[in-house]
Every structure is written in structure tokens, then in C-alpha cells.
């Protein structure tokens, strides 16, 4: 096998398309197909499932993808080590992110990053924290970003942003700005509550906090469940109920007078956001660049 064959396979697997891969690496589709066929023949296994609508890796293909990308990463690192000028760096970074980082952290980070590195393309897919972990294990993405630490040891998980949960209430509420635990328990039991979906990092951190109040999620007066923070904040600002949200996500709504946030006298619900990468994956220069940039950007 040679690097051209590996590159053809990696791009077809990433883009789920022979034609897109051909356009990306400037080869004809027959050449791409020939490279893939040669690889499969040499390895003695099918790497890709081809249908009339899509192309996607087999289990063997997913396993081989890690090794193929690592070999290409070593090639790119060798080239990068002798290249002149960081502004000439080109490439693509694919991210899986839970709702808060996807909506409130990544947009500003990417905007600043691309002023220095305009030739790097970002592809961001949003899900909840639990699904980010599952998809990063089984799909072909560079990094995952979650609002809670995932169990297990599949990933390198680096905390990069420190936040906390605040209680968001409609702007018309006359609730005191500071609540005792007793007042908070009564509020949570009686007021309509807007919940995040199962798998959400916010929901997991909320569940952990409720244990300190001897409460469970089932004891809340839940009236609605959303799969993203923006919808939760919209519901709160519309008067549908109250909810716990990340401080970073509530800032603009609070500044515009759409909601109020309540501080808790005896509790601070801290949370971290994590950058995830697969342990066995060798990062390409463009991926290393982004990783370093993100960690430095949010360094306190």
C-alpha cells in the first residue's frame, strides 16, 4: 500500500462520497476506486460499504481508518516541520460538540482562529454530551467537546473552560435574587420546570446537584423537555417555566432583560467543558494547532 491509497480511503470515509473525495484531493473517481480496491485486496477485507445513496466504513474500515489517518498525520507532520510560515497552513477540522459549546463557545473561537488561519475549514455537528462520546467512538471526527466528563477511558479528556449553572427565571418573576436551600426546594417543587434531554451534560450536572438537596429529577414539576440550550432559554424568556442553564449561555438573555438569573446562597454548581480526542489517534499538524489554540484561548 502507498500513501495515495491511504489518502483516498481516508477522504472517502470522511466525506462518505467517492466524488467529493475525488474533488478534494484532485483525483478522478476511477482512480479513487482503484486505490480503494487495491487496499481492500491487499488487506483481504472490505473497508467500505457502497450503496446507491451513500458510502460508509465497515467495522474493519473504522478500525483501519485510525491507522491510515495516523500514517498520513506523520507524513503531514514531516512536511509541516520544514514548511515556512504558519499562515500557509491548510486543512479541515471536524468537531462534535454538545449544545452549549456549539452555540456559545465555538462560534467566537472559530471567528478569531480563522483570522490567523483562513485556509482551515471547520465542520461542526451538534449533539448532546452522551451522543458526542458515542459518535466520536464510532464516527470519523477529530475532536469532541462535552459539558461533562464522560465515563470510561476511551478518550483523552482535557478541561478547557470553567463555568457554572445558574437558575434562569422569566424576567417578570419577583423571586429574590438569593435563595436559601429551603426556598429553592420549594421553588423547584412548585414552579414549571424546563428540562434538558437525557444525555445532556447540563442535565447530568443538575442531577448531581439535586442530590445535595435530597431531590430527584422526578420530583421537579417538569412541563417540557428540549434538546438544546437555546430553546430552553427561549421557553424561560417566554414565561413557560424556570430552568438551570450554563452561565455563559444565559449572559446575553440576561443583558437584554429577557430573563433573570438567581444566585444560590449555599451552592455553586460548577461545571467544566472538555476537549475529547481518541487515545490512539495521532493528531495531524492542523489538529495540534487547533488543540493548542483552544486550550490557550480559554486559559484563565
Observed structural traits:
D-Maltodextrin-Binding Protein, domain 2, 24% strand, alpha/beta, 300 residues
Fourth-level CATH superfamily of the domain at 161-271: Periplasmic binding protein-like II
* SSE ordering: HHHEEHEHEHEEEHEHEHEHEEH
Find the CATH topology of the domain at 161-271. Answer: D-Maltodextrin-Binding Protein, domain 2
CATH class of the domain at 161-271: Alpha Beta
Q: Give the averaged pLDDT, no decimals.
A: 89
Q: State the helical fraction.
A: 40-55%
Spatial gap, N to C terminus: 46 Å
Characterize the biggest β-sheet: 8 strands, mixed
Radius of gyration, whole Å: 23 Å
- How many E strands? 12
The second-level CATH architecture of the domain at 161-271 is: 3-Layer(aba) Sandwich
Broad structural category: alpha/beta
Strand content: 15-25%
Number of helices: 11
Overall shape: it is elongated
Organism: Lacrimispora xylanisolvens
Family: Belongs to the LysR transcriptional regulatory family.
Protein name: LysR family transcriptional regulator
Domain HTH lysR-type: 1-58
